[in-house]
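Q: what does this look like with magnesium ion bound?
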Amino acid sequence: MYHKIPDPTQRRIEEKLSRLQDRLAMEAVHKVIEFDRTPVDLKADLDRFVIGQEMGKKVLATAISFHYRRLGRALKQAVMETGQDIDLALRKTENPKANILITGPTGCGKTYTAEIASELVGVPFVKVDMTKFSEVGYVGQNVSDILADLLIYANGNPLIAQMGMVYLDEIDKIASEPVTTRDVSGRGVQKGLLKLVEGMENTIELGRERIHLTTKHVLFIGGGAFEKLESSVKKRLTRKMLPGDWETSHHTDDFVACGMDKQLMGRFPVRVVFDRLTTQDLQDIMTHSEGSPLKSYVNDLRAWDIDLEFTDEALGEVARRAQEEEIGARGLITILHRILLEDMYRGPGTFTGKLVVDGDYVREKML
Ligand SMILES: Nc1ncnc2c1ncn2[C@@H]1O[C@H](COP(=O)(O)OP(=O)(O)OP(=O)(O)O)[C@@H](O)[C@H]1O
Ligand SMILES: [Mg+2]
């Protein structure tokens, strides 16, 4: 049936929607202004999702908690001075920020921890694949894409977009080869990023609208495997006969030795190394993490009245096999998928009740 809504009603609906959107936007802004989670609170929330990575969670929770508390306080002050104009306050606020650099092996929770933290704070999270940058060799279009993504994840609200987090994934892929002369990708891209991560004024054109966005308050988090970092730090420690763990003794120059630009590294002062996950960590991810891939299989199958259960032996076996894949927690998804594929295909509609997976079942499926 076709309904024509009379114009005045339509206007009323639009006004209501617009007011609702404004209210939601203001609520989101106020959440940042009133941010009061301590590093310990934030770390405790991260613990529900991220297994292991004690140092990583501690460093991230502290940096993020301080960033948003600092920003919130500065905004509050500026809003009082400018008479409620948050946009102006955002531009006036000088918020010395400390971007974060995370290194560690693949699949150990670098991106995951940062993303969960952004959800806990309630700000947009944009993940950027840095290999895109090295392919093009300059930053131009990619920067516009980042800003557009921030706006999208902020539901079109520029105020919130400017308070988001941007995760630069595989940042080590824009490293330059230290000795080659034909260095199209690395150096130029790294130099091009300096302004963006430090804070830069931008204008986005959306149809007839022009939106001003500053990255002054955006928290940038770089993540990468930096495979040569460990040996580079160890070499330096041995050469200078210094004691200490490489994980806590890295310097800017060690990143420079891996092909990173010194100035760019200077804009990522908070640095932390994430650990390789142990077999026990992998097992705990399945049983304790709120984001457990096993829990999602259990929920999915429950929707078909199938109660999936893994015995302790099966869990140990899955964790061990996942460890052998050497792709961190992503190995769990690969293994679980292989074990459960047939049951997920045939089970729904033909079987209800308990489905117990034991050690033998895992071994049989993983031949
Ligand atoms: N420590 C962890 N605790 C709980 N889940 C984890 C952990 N590490 C990884 N995961 C799970 O594995 C998935 C992949 O991890 P993530 O994307 O964080 O890897 P990464 O360290 O960023 O790796 P890469 O260097 O390849 O980008 C996550 O989405 C999450 O489900
Ligand atoms: Mg990642």
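The first helix runs from residue 7 to 33. Strands lie at 100-103, 125-129, 165-169, 201-206, 209-214, 219-224, 270-273, 306-310, 353-357.
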